[in-house]
Design goal:
The protein is of the alpha/beta class. It contains 16 helices and 23 strands. The radius of gyration is 26 Å and the shape is elongated. Bound molecules: coenzyme A.
């Protein structure tokens, strides 16, 4: 009889409390019917946290998020080779796959898929292993025949689409089939991205035994694809070699249109749910274009903007506004989102009598996300928008952080004579005596 994975023993790193369900509810309309490709390394499938992870996947399914599972096999393949006394030509599907390695890869794949099938069944989920991955032999690279190693040729989207529509989770092995039906071994990091691209998934979530993406010893909580591309081009050695493949494939995936890729430690209890449903996350989020994260606020954001800025108002860093004032004047607000969570806001005001001037205000960055370039990005975004609308000068009024504008964002200290007349009136009546800062827009 098959021995399922052991009862999970891993202690909770961070736990979602039942009260957080209210918080989770807000994600339901945003994530409804989206496809998440979840890529499990073989080492994660072997870990005692697997059953918790599959339970988390059941939670995602219950929230109408469509899930496709891709799994790796390196750990099991290496163990199998050791027990059989076989020397592997390559363990991760990126180098040569000789016939003995291919044979063991098929066996390891069957074992890993079975563990996943078993765990999903225990959580009441329907699932199926498919032959939806059509592959071509990688061929000869730098004079070396890669033998049984393959690259993705085509993904049978219809097959996967039918399964997903029938509420069946496709389980994708790191194995493809050539046009004549022969088996080829495919790297699972690459495969997850290819599947996500083909299905138009909104996320790839890599679950490995690493805490996230560590660059130069520093765990990145979020990183833009531009910054990561630069690191991969100029200093690839600063990324641990074990994470480089995922970093490279994440960049490829985002460049081809997948909005977000997450790297998280699949051994941590609740990591998956915390990453998806909290603004702070537990691993690393890799995201696309910097300014794509900034959008105009809508009325449904009002409550969140109020609670975001309330501590800034208490400390008199920001001017107080009540909820209905914000709601009736939502148009100038822009919000910065990280993975669907608002983490910062800013306003951009225009004055009919002074079309050459725009004012940036209510700039607030959530404490956890400070010092990561969000504030600067919001200011640069506002400057671009102001310029597009024909403004020649951007003004900011600040009581407690004028040096942020002057030393970081290129503003200079000015005086109240720079203010449009309507703004001058409120400036004089509110008694805050904020510093007037001005930046010429070129
Ligand atoms: C000021 C604020 C918007 C900065 O946001 P942020 O996302 O942390 O800023 P960034 O990460 O883009 O920039 C950080 C840089 O600004 C510097 N910085 C932040 N506040 C500063 C200040 N008051 N004076 C000088 N430099 C400051 C940081 O030291 C850092 O410099 P570094 O990159 O050389 O390390 C944020 O701290 C905040 O929300 N403060 C409370 C509200 C507020 O005062 N708003 C402005 C008035 S409208």
């Amino acid at each position: 009889m098959s021995q399922g994975p052991a009862i999970p023993q891993v202690p909770a790193a961070t736990t979602i409390k039942p009260t957080d369900l209210r918080g989770i509810l807000k994600y339901i309309p945003r994530f409804r019917d989206q496809i998440f490709v979840i890529a499990l390394d073989g080492a994660v499938v072997a870990d005692s946290n697997l059953l918790n992870l599959l339970l988390d996947i059941a939670v995602l399914r219950s929230l109408t998020i469509k899930v496709v599972l891709v799994h790796g096999i390196s750990k099991q393949l290496t163990e199998l080779a050791e027990s059989c006394g076989v020397t592997l030509s390559n363990a991760d599907g990126t180098g040569v796959t000789d016939p003995a390695t291919l044979d063991l890869a098929v066996r390891a794949s069957a074992r890993v898929s079975h563990l996943v099938l078993e765990g999903l069944t225990q959580n009441g989920l329907k699932c199926a292993i498919t032959n939806a991955i059509r592959a071509l032999p990688t061929g000869v690279i730098k004079g070396v025949d890669q033998q049984g190693t393959g690259k993705v040729h085509r993904i049978e989207k219809d097959t996967l689409g039918h399964l997903i529509a029938a509420d069946i989770i496709p389980i994708i092995q790191p194995i493809g089939f050539s046009t004549n039906g022969h088996t080829l071994r495919i790297n699972s990091d690459l495969l997850a991205i290819e599947v996500a691209e083909a299905l138009g998934a909104t996320k790839v979530i890599y679950l490995s035994t690493q805490e996230g993406l560590v660059i130069d010893g520093d765990l990145k909580r979020d990183i833009s694809v531009q910054t990561l591309t630069k690191v991969l081009d100029q200093a690839p050695h600063t990324i641990a070699s074990s994470a480089r493949s995922k970093a490279l494939h994440s960049v490829k995936g985002i460049e081809s249109g997948i909005p977000r890729v997450h790297l998280i430690d699949g051994r941590i209890y609740d990591a998956l749910l915390n990453e998806v449903f909290s603004s702070e996350g537990v691993g690393t989020l890799i995201y696309g274009n910097d300014y794509q994260q900034i959008r105009q606020a809508t009325r449904s954001d009002v409550h969140f903007i109020q609670s975001l800025t309330s501590s800034g108002v208490k400390r008199e860093e920001l001017l107080s506004r009540d909820e209905s004032t914000t709601e009736n004047n939502i148009e100038p607000f822009y919000v910065f989102e990280i993975d669907e969570n608002i983490v910062a806001c800013v306003t951009l005001q225009f004055y009919p009598d002074r079309p050459d001037v725009a004012e940036i205000g209510s700039l607030y960055v959530m404490p956890f996300h400070k010092k990561r370039g969000v504030g600067r990005k919001m200011v640069e975004f506002a400057a671009l928008r102001a310029q597009e609308r024909g403004a020649k000068q951007l003004i900011a009024l600040s009581t407690q952080n004028p040096t942020f504008f002057t030393s970081v964002c290129g503003f200079e200290e000015s005086d109240k004579s720079s203010l449009p007349s309507a703004r001058l009136k409120t400036y004089e009546s509110n008694g805050r005596n904020a510093k007037v800062l001005l930046r010429e827009l070129k």
